Amino acid sequence: MAVTLSGANVPDGKMMEATVDAVKPIKRPCGRPRKRPAKLHADKAYDAADKRHALRQRGITPRIARRRIESAERLGCYRWVVEITQS
Prior knowledge:
This protein has helices at residues 16-21, 49-57, 76-84, and strands at residues 39-42, 61-64. It is of the alpha+beta class and 87 residues long. The radius of gyration is 14 Å and the shape is globular.
């Protein structure tokens, strides 16, 4: 689990790269541990070209809802799994 700290007035998007870089290797049944996840699902707050580019540079496929184009409901099933674990 990756944990990064920031001030309460810092937008989440500014901490995205630091949080992704803080992810520990993912254990796999065989072979070398994977350093980063294959995909990152995020809501419209992370919709920016620089965020998508930063993820692609790290070998991560961005699955970010686009503002004024995509419905917020499409990523809901993925976000719900994460949000119920944050208690």
